[in-house]
Design a protein that fits this description.
Helix 5 packs across helix 6. The protein has eleven helices and 13 strands. Helix content is about 45%, strand content about 20%. The protein is elongated. It folds into two domains: about 140 residues, Rossmann fold; about 140 residues, 3-Layer(aba) Sandwich (Rossmann fold), CATH 3.40.50. The strands form two sheets. Strands 6, 7, 8, 9, 10, 11 and 13 form a seven-stranded mixed sheet that branches. The protein is an alpha/beta fold and about 325 residues long.
């Protein structure tokens, strides 16, 4: 009887060890949930996430919403990832406030949560890879002021139009805050931001383009455009190209094909704030995998950096590396 009992115990131990070894050797499932699937900015982040999955042997599934304001669809994706017991979740929230509780609940369920690009307004997450958005807004304002001085007298009246993709994105809010604060402290007094007429395009590129044309028509002293997100920047860049308005200076965000095209034409006076979204995607998955394997992070909030890109440095190695090309 003792021999039989010992044999059964040994058998149970072998089965348990085999099961544990199998679990450890099985690829981890990392759910990546982004904003606008198919958008040029998010395609770069997606590419980084996919490459990390290949490099580190993880199963990376990527989902995205049709546009950056489809909050309910993104919440459903997050809930489905939790229900499927993903080993870790990488998410760029569409609405910082509206999705805060869902992100918190997912984290409290025991799943590592890594946020990229945009944070939910909660402290319940494992790590976040983000641009310092206030500093990015300040850099955008400094760049626009510098470029305007090349073409506009500091005594001349000038109006600067702004459009944004969403009112719910904390990322956009912080960039605009940084931009406006720097502008107020450093721009000539005769250069005015049209803060009473900020347009919201809800991630719709056609609306963003139309808003650009509307601004050109409505404001005869219009000298500049500022846009704090990719879709709005694509809209303004397309407007300038369609209208051939080389007299309007522009600073936007991200390195879309539309923005690259206008930057490479030296007749236009434009620049863009290049984020490191490839790094966000790649390191987001890498860190999520480390956390899923029981690791920890030294720094919870990681600043991935931002740089100004214009005609002078568009072909530099630094820009190519940041853009993931």
């Amino acid at each position: 009887m003792r021999k039989l009992t010992a044999l059964l115990i040994a058998l149970v131990m072998v089965v348990a060890m085999t099961t544990a070894a199998s679990a450890e050797s099985s690829p981890k499932n990392i759910a990546v949930i982004i904003k606008a699937l198919g958008n040029a900015y998010w395609a770069v982040l997606q590419s980084g996430a996919t490459k990390a999955g290949e490099d580190f042997g993880a199963n990376v599934t990527i989902q995205g919403i049709p546009n950056e304001v489809d909050i309910e669809a993104q919440l459903t994706m997050l809930q489905n990832a939790v229900s499927a017991q993903a080993d870790a979740i990488v998410i760029a929230v569409a609405d910082s406030q509206s999705e805060a509780n869902a992100v918190s609940d997912a984290y409290k369920s025991g799943i590592p949560i890594v946020m990229v690009d945009t944070k939910a307004t909660t402290e319940d997450y494992s790590a976040a890879l983000l641009t310092d958005n206030v500093k990015a807004g300040e850099l955008a304002a400094a760049t626009l002021i510098e470029k305007l001085k090349l073409r506009v007298s500091q005594d001349e009246e000038a109006e600067i139009a702004i459009q944004i993709g969403s009112t719910g994105s904390q990322t956009i809010k912080l960039r605009v805050e940084g931009f406006e604060a720097y502008w107020a402290a450093n721009a000539p007094a005769t250069w005015k931001l049209l803060t009473d007429d900020i347009k919201v395009n809800d991630g719709d590129i056609s609306k963003a383009i139309q808003f650009g044309h509307d601004f050109l028509t409505a404001y005869p002293n219009l000298k500049g455009f500022f846009s704090p997100n990719n879709g709005s920047t694509v809209g303004f860049a397309t407007t300038l190209i369609e209208s051939e308005r080389k007299d309007v200076t522009m600073v936007g965000f991200d390195f879309s094909p539309e923005m690259e095209k206008i930057i490479r034409d030296s007749d236009y006076n434009v620049a863009t704030m290049l984020q490191r979204q490839y790094l966000m995607g790649y390191d987001g998955v890498r860190i999520a995998l480390e956390l899923a394997n029981g690791g920890t992070v030294e720094t919870k909030d990681i600043d991935t950096g931002v740089m100004a890109v214009d005609f002078e440095n568009v072909d530099s190695d630094e820009v190519k590396a940041a853009a993931g090309v």
